[in-house]
Amino acid sequence: MNMKLTFSDLLKRNKKKLETEKVRVEKEIKTLDASSKFEHVNKRLQESEYESKVEDIEIVEHNKGFREMLTNYLGQIKKAMRNMKRHKYGVCERCGKRISPDRLKADPAAIYCLECATLVEKNETA
Ligand SMILES: [Zn+2]
Predict the structure, then answer these.
(1) What is the pLDDT of residues 49-104, one digit of tens each?
(2) Considering 2, 37, 48, 84, which has the largest number of Cβ atoms within 10 A of its Cβ?
(3) Which CATH number do you get for residue 27?
(4) Is 2 a domain residue?
(5) 67 C-alpha to center of ligand 1: Å?
(6) H/E stretch holding 20
(7) What is the pLDDT of residue 78?
(8) Domain residues for 41?
(9) How far is the CA of 104 from the centre of ligand 1 (A)?
(10) CA neighbor of 15 nearest in space, from 114, 91, 82
């Protein structure tokens, strides 16, 4: 008997992980939206107008970055789930090669192989 995880085992395991992760990230975005609205109103009530404006901008900017990151991640989760339905899970979106099972195990939402992920990341930060 081979103790190694088969691809269909991995698929089943990652499907569950992605479903849980999707719910978690969606909830986090909602909480973030609700809290940033609340903080915004609260700050205005407590502080002088100038200070509150500066801090508001900081909070909004910080939350915006965090929210963007979460939204991107959620998009990736959804893509990975869609790929599962189309039986294309584990195939790199960019080059069409198989993504290594180890990479999928570590990151169920991976839609690029390691090589392409590095390239895409470089492009995004450049
Ligand atoms: Zn690739």
Answers:
(1) 666 677 777 877 888 889 999 999 999 999 999 999 999 999 999 999 999 999 99
(2) 84
(3) 1.20.120.910
(4) no
(5) 27
(6) helix 7-46
(7) 97
(8) 8-125
(9) 13
(10) 82
